[in-house]
Amino acid sequence: MDFLNNIDPVIRTFAMAMLPVVELRGAIPLGIAMGLTHFESLVISFLGSMIPVPFILTLFRPITSWMRSTALFKKLVKRVVDRTMEKEKTIKDFGLLGLLILVAIPLPGTGVWSGSFLSSLLNIRKRRAIPIIAIGNIIAGILVLSITFGISQIF
Fold first, then answer.
1. Is 33 exposed, middle or buried (0-12, 13-18, 19+ CB in 10 A)?
2. According to the model, what pLDDT value does residue 17 have?
């Protein structure tokens, strides 16, 4: 465990933000707890959480297609796709604004991973999805800071 303590807080925060479920909503408080400023933690967490987006948008469908053909992963893929598609109505009703809202709400089951999965499943083009996901992600980061630390301490 001493090894982890020797890793720079910037790298730890950046890496934590790339993880599904945790994303920037978990990385921001971690970065602040390790001594980063609120703004540094927001920026580093935002950048880290955006790293998986183009990979998910590009690779999710081919990988899930292959996994569906295997007995080992077929049920897992069905469960992930079904859970993701439960959010489809938001996008169908509100279009890209629905995607932005899905990413911006800092709750479990939302965020860049869910938004990217859903964008991929709905065939939303990368050049349209990435900016919307980025805007939603920065909104989520500001909300996390506001809720957790109060708006006056952010900047």
1. exposed
2. 96
| Strand locations in 14-111 (E) | none
Q: Which residues contact 17 (CB under 8 A, 6 or more apart)?
A: 23, 24, 26, 27, 44, 45, 46, 47, 48, 49
Cα–Cα distance, 72 to 67 (Å, whole number):
8
pTM over 0.90: no
**pLDDT band for position 5 (50/70/90)?**
low
Tokens in use for 106? 């800092």
Write out the two tokens for 92. 């169908």
Cα–Cα dist 33/38, whole Å = 10
In this structure, what token pair is assigned to residue 108?
């479990």
Average pLDDT over all residues of the chain = 88
